[in-house]
Design brief:
Arc Repressor Mutant, subunit A; single chain
């Protein structure tokens, strides 16, 4: 199971990476260097950097806030679809009950 890192740790790692980039030939070399120091996988650090760039508007993409809102709306949409299906079924049932002849 993936480890969860606190936001403060992520911010510190990203600051270290920003300071380290000018000292290395490539961004990936800086990422590997900082990730080894912090005991984080290089791919994890790279993803944190990409996410931070998207959230700050430097890189195009869906921000974290937009992603959370989309997930919430999708859950709500699914719940409403289920409720509509239940109402549709109940409506059909009661309509059938009204169409039956009454016996006394």
């Amino acid at each position: 199971m993936p480890r969860q890192f606190p936001p403060e740790f992520r911010q510190r790692a990203l600051r270290m990476l920003e300071e380290s980039i000018p000292e290395h030939e490539t961004e990936y070399a800086a990422i590997r260097h900082v990730s080894m120091k912090l005991g984080v996988g290089p791919e994890t650090l790279r993803k944190w950097r990409r996410r931070a760039e998207i959230d700050s508007g430097v890189r195009p993409g869906v921000t974290s806030e937009e992603s959370v809102e989309l997930k919430r709306l999708k859950r709500e949409n699914a719940e409403l679809r289920r409720a509509n299906e239940i109402l549709r079924t109940a409506s059909a049932f009661f309509a059938a009950e009204l169409d039956r002849p009454m016996t006394r």
